[in-house]
Design a protein that fits this description.
- This protein is of the alpha+beta class and 109 residues long.
- It is 15% helix and 23% strand.
- The protein has two helices and five strands; from the N terminus they run ββαβαββ.
- A five-stranded mixed β-sheet has the order 2-1-5-3-4, covered by helices on one side.
- A hairpin with a 5-residue loop joins strand 1 (3-9) and strand 2.
- The protein starts with a strand and ends with a strand.
- 28% of the residues are buried.
């Protein structure tokens, strides 16, 4: 088992240093939910299917991430508050390579 540390800035601007396990097949959205960094019902509304953009976040670090898939790209093209560094947290699996990742949750839309 290997845990990694991620820095997440919530929607109020508070930074949280969280520890995420790499052996539980979690994604970034699920980590945010497990630490209750967003109010219940405001993140991961579609259950992680890349169909709602409620888990949109801005990548602040220079961390290598998986390529954006077609579903994620299509959802981001329709979402609000999209920036060049926007990603859907549900599409970012927690792996050892993400150690040190820094993200900011996008405003609720």
């Amino acid at each position: 088992m290997q845990d990694i540390t991620i820095k997440i800035t919530d929607r109020e601007g508070t930074q949280h240093h969280v520890v995420a396990p790499t052996d539980m097949a979690m994604n970034l959205m699920e980590v945010v939910r497990s630490y209750e960094l967003a109010p219940e019902g405001t993140i991961g509304v579609c259950g992680g299917m890349a169909m709602c953009a409620s888990c949109q976040c801005y990548i602040l670090s220079n961390t290598d991430l998986p390529e954006i898939g077609d579903e994620e790209d299509a959802m981001l093209s329709e979402a609000f508050y999209v920036k060049q560094n926007s990603r859907l947290g549900c599409q970012i699996p927690i792996t050892a390579q993400l150690h040190g990742l820094e993200v900011e949750l996008a405003p609720e839309s």
